[in-house]
Amino acid sequence: MKILYLIVLSVSFTFATVGIPKLSPEASVAMQKELEDVARVGSVMVDGDVCQKIVTEQAKGFLFATDPRDRFLAGDNYDVDDVAFNTVKKTLTRLSHLASFPADVNLWMPIEGHPGKIQLVIRNRNEMSQFWNWGELYGDMVPQMETVLKTGQRVTVTSKPGWISVLAPVHDSLGDVVGLIEVVSQVKVDAHENVK
Amino acid sequence: MVVEILLHWMSSAVLMRRLQTRFVFLFLIAIYSQVLLAADLEALPEFLRSDPFGAIVAPDRSGADLASSLYGAKHQVVLTGCRGGYVSFHLVVKLPSPSTYTLDVTIPDPANKVQIDLFREWFHFTDSDKRYYPDALIPVHATYSSRLPEPDNRIPKQTAQAFWVDVYVAPDTRLGIFSGTAKLKANSKITTLPIQLTVLACVIPGEDVVTIDHNSYGSSWLAQQFAGSYQRNLDHWFESNQFFELIHAYHRVFYEHRGIFHQLGYGHSGKVGPEFAPVLEGSGRAKHITSWGLYDRHYGPLFDGTAFSASRRGPRPIPFVYLPINPEWPASYEFWGERGYEAEFVNVVSEMERHSREKGWTHTNFEVFFNHKKRYKGFPWDGDEVRFQKDLKYFLEYDRLLKKALPPNTPVHFVFRADVSWDMEQQFKVLNGVVKLWCAGGGILSFYKDAPKMLRNRGDVIWYYGGPPSVTDSSAAITEFPLRAWLWGVNGYVHWLTVSPGEDPWFHFDGGRTALVYSGERFGLTEPIPSIRLKIQRNCLQDLAVLDTLKGRKSLDSLRAEATRRYNDSSLDDWWNPRPALADLPSDQWLGSAIDDATRHTQQALQHPAASAAYKVHQYALSLQAEAK
User: Fold this and answer.
1) What is the CATH number of domain A23-186?
2) B291-307, pLDDT tens digit by residue?
3) Of B273, B333, B373, which has the smallest distance from its Cβ to A192's Cβ?
4) Is A78 an 8 Å CB contact of chain B?
């Protein structure tokens, strides 16, 4: 019975550790600290004025458009200014190199005239985000994002098991918070997720 | 007294008559019950699918007149076919009450050139119309024993089980007639259906006139669909032999059905799955390949053809493959437009060319293909289905980089591929000499009747794309795609997704518009299993290959015209749409609904082919072969 108990215990432990990826608390704190450092630098380096030029007027005009005969109407009209996009994306990529582990820095922008909605504008090579539902053009703003946009303070989010995101403000030349960056990583990177 | 006697006699006579009538009635009931209760074995043409209660499924009833087409004068199953291919039909076991049974199908051939593949048809319950349709084909032995209702399919009051019979006729089979039987044992009774197979002189060409591609994205779906295998080796499954054998098995199942298989290895932001690319290290001019390990295990057997050694079609290198090249691989996008981007791209692509050359992988077209769309937020230009002309400058830059990376006379075939829709007419011009493999949206390509010939004349390859029909469509719906490709004069057709049967294809099926194969794990298999739709598509490809061989005797146009007439009483022009006014507008001003309007003609003319449509084309091909003989 004792042996059986030990086997069951050992199997349960294996499943538990495999099922939910976990780091030791110290390692997790260290990861979070690095991501916070990247986010702090990111707030300084990312140019909010350039960020505001990325999504084109045509794309904004169609973002909420619907047509029962054309379910891809908004997506088919999504367009960006590639110069502005490339400028910001290069900065985001370089910021991600500051972390000693695979991390992405994504750009999120609020949508004028649509409070409570937010748009992911730039993703990066590891295809990580704690908030983006694959394929969506825009989504509901989570309260932590709203806090960043309202207060200009950084917020760390670990709601999704195994994920750490640090949200940090992006300022324009007037000093206003016009967007935010998500500095994100996973405790256990899934090499096959989002390869599609 | 006389009256009494008379009355007695009369009553006796009435009684006798009553008894006789009752006896006859009971006797008839008994006989009729025997008929009703008797097990039955029915053969149906490939285009008539049975439901689990023995009726033809509703979408195929338009072809119900075919039901007797398989039977000869002596109630034997009559099959006729060319060599080098398959003749197929359904066998339906009907048992009116729950019972065990054994089905045995044989066509003896001492030379073993005629072989039978028997498949049990799985009845999928579709949530959309609450009905059952057969589609997944579970390989079983030619002698199959089970019971009805079939335990694993769990259909209450099931009275019929359908089987798909593939009769393979090898290219070197002797001509003439082969006899066989289908035998059903149930309730201590044996029902026998004689089978007569006539093998014609014609040989179906090994090469197809149209390439049918079956597309997929990434590998994570393999872990979901073969969860048992994955769970047993969670941490290392994606590097295991089982994993690579499974990928090869997917290539094999499509190859065996005269198709090809594509697996895109990167995401919309450029993340590359480890098994799709060599390992890179360094940055800028120091960026280089450090390991071919997973890449070679994945692709080696596909590029040299050994993955198909056991196939009836023989080993053959795959003709096309996606490269992992995307804006983020091998060069880092943070260097886009700078010398470092060019250095990284050219160095690594040159290494890939050299590696392929040294391995002798010179029979496969290595596709440089950009799948990303800006709506998925990874990059600022559309690689797939360009709508905004300004995006084309990126294609021109990659063409420059590619030419710099490759030796001018390399025997390794790198080919620039573009999947086009909105702006295809412009791209055919602007990217002339850059893109050599075009994959065009079928709706918009239907506006440009001259395009296939123009592209092929300059040496380009042109495919069009769409998606598989649902199992709730007529059985012949799948044949429209290869037939259209042949009629249009394009090189091929792409099913955009073919390996995604939904969360529960077995009991809550979504219809299968993104699947033509299924996981065999449920049935103890470590491979995918085919579908009825895939088999019907293969048989259609055989017919097209045969028809095309006759273009020396008849003009290709007359062959095509007669095929369309027989298929659905249409003309060749019905398969094209007139060029609409919107085609003269910049494509970023088009609306999706306007495209629907502009393709209405073909949508209406070709909607819902009858179940008998492809059968008539098949008969046409056979009749021409008989004439040729």
Assistant:
1) 3.30.450
2) 999 999 999 999 999 99
3) B273
4) yes
